[in-house]
């Protein structure tokens, strides 16, 4: 119930703006054709940015215990390219939103989510979004 309330408040009080920013960069990536892998990541993380409470970003190789194209060397190269063209701008947006939330004191949980999203925006290739319970199982082997 608290997750639902948190997600609704988050969406209304600014989450929608950053989610739309993710989707905007995703559309730009899809238009370029070669950017389709980045576009796909943008839409997944954009959805997460709309409703972050109750979910977490984890590395796919941590989740599946297998390497794939996004978690190896090509993923690293993709993340460097992403950082230059879009990641830094999304991170700045999330950090500015976090500062605005921290100022209100009551918005501190929202600010912490923005900081998590800022971190993810720097290198999203090779990550996936899962429920918190599944992320805990992947991290701690439970």
Automatic annotation (TrEMBL):
Keywords: Cell inner membrane, Cell membrane, Membrane, Plasmid, Transmembrane, Transmembrane helix
Localization in the cell: Cell inner membrane
Bilayer-crossing regions: 7-31, 80-112
Organism superkingdom: Bacteria
InterPro entries on file: Inner_membrane_protein, UCP028777, YccF
Membrane topology: Multi-pass membrane protein
Pfam families on file: YccF (PF03733)
Predominant cellular place of this UniProt entry's protein: membrane
UniProt protein name: Inner membrane protein YccF
Organism: Vibrio aquimaris
Gene name of the record: yccF
């Amino acid at each position: 119930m608290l997750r639902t309330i948190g997600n609704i408040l988050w969406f209304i009080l600014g989450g929608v703006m950053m989610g739309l920013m993710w989707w905007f960069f995703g559309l730009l990536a899809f238009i370029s054709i070669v950017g389709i892998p980045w576009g796909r990541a943008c839409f997944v993380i954009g959805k997460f940015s709309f409703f972050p409470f109750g979910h977490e970003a984890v590395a796919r190789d941590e989740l599946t215990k297998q390497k794939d194209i996004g978690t190896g060397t090509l993923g690293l190269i993709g993340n460097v390219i992403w950082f230059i063209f879009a990641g830094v701008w999304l991170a700045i947006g999330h950090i500015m939103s976090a500062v605005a939330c921290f100022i209100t004191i009551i918005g501190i949980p929202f600010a912490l989510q923005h900081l998590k999203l800022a971190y993810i925006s720097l290198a999203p290739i090779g990550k996936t979004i899962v429920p918190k319970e599944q992320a805990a199982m992947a991290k701690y082997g439970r």
